[in-house]
Structures are given as C-alpha cells and as structure tokens.
Amino acid sequence: MRFEIPEEKKLVHETRIQIRWGDMDAMGHVNNTVYFRYLEMARVEWLERLGGAPNPAGQGPVIVNAFCNFYRAVTYPGELIARHYVSSPGRSSFDTWITLERADEPGVICAAGGATTVWQDAAVQKSMPLPEWVRAQLV
C-alpha cells in the first residue's frame, strides 16, 4: 500500500532514523507508540534546523492533534527514511505530514502520520500568529 502526498504539501526535511532493538514489542515488530516518537524526531529536527525548537519559556510550536497510519510492520535491525512535509498555513497553525520507509526498501511506505502544529506564547498558553520566518518555510 502506498501513501501519496498530495501536491499542495511541501517537502521541507528528510532524515534517517535508526530502528533500535528496544523499539520492538512482544509481537516482534516496532510498537505502535514508537512511530509517534519517530514522527516527533523528524518534526523537532526540522524545527531545530529552522531555529524554532520547542521553548517552554517562550514562543514556539505545540501539537494539538496527531495521527499515524500503519501500512507495513517494521522490525529491527534497520534504518528508516522520514520525509517531512508541511501544508495549510493558517494564522497560527500549519499541518505536518511525515512518511516512514525502510532505507533498504526505497519507495515502500511503512507508516505515515502527521500533526497540526499551533504557534503559541507559552507564558499565557495562547496561540499567536506564525512568525514570518516560519510562514516563509510553509509556502
């Protein structure tokens, strides 16, 4: 099964993630909760590269929802390629989409997920307009 990224989404980041022995569960494959960690790793790496890493004392991104679809079991050992896309910039939010495929099986999507990210002022716990330097990365 393939996960198609619609054209209106923009590829902004690609990274590799090592599958760890401890990521597996009693069924012998990567536990479903670990995929959310993989998605987070790709998303945070992209944000850090932009200079917008999460900042609990200032302004920055928070996730308001997240999802993951599982297409093919992943097992240790191996390496995943995570491709990170963005779309739908609004006043204070944007959507992220991430595909995960094994490096040794190019083009075969094992899982795909994403999240809605809201830019917030942590001190007052309220959304705020996306900074222009972030918005520039989304269009």
Task: Write a brief structural summary.
The protein has helices at residues 32-50, 132-138, and strands at residues 10-19, 59-70, 78-87, 93-102, 109-121, 126-127. It is α+β, with helices and mostly antiparallel strands and 139 residues long.
Description:
The protein is built from 2 helices and 6 strands. The protein has 139 residues and is an alpha+beta fold. It has one domain: Thiol Ester Dehydrase, Chain A, CATH 3.10.129. Strands 1, 2, 3, 4, 5 and 6 form a 6-stranded antiparallel beta sheet that branches. A hairpin with a 5-residue loop joins strand 3 (78-87) and strand 4. It is elongated.
Order of helices and strands: EHEEEEEH
Give the assembly state of these chains. single chain
Secondary structure category: alpha+beta
- Supply the CATH architecture: Roll
- β-strand percent reads 35-45%
Query: How many domains is the backbone divided into?
Result: 1
According to CATH, what is the class? Alpha Beta
Amino-to-carboxy terminus distance? 29 Å
Average pLDDT rating: 92
Number of strands: 6
Largest sheet: 6 strands, antiparallel
> What spatial form do the alpha-carbon principal axes imply?
elongated
- CATH homologous superfamily classification: Hotdog Thioesterase
Instruction: Quote the CATH topology.
Output: Thiol Ester Dehydrase, Chain A
What Rg is obtained from the alpha carbons, in whole angstroms?
16 Å
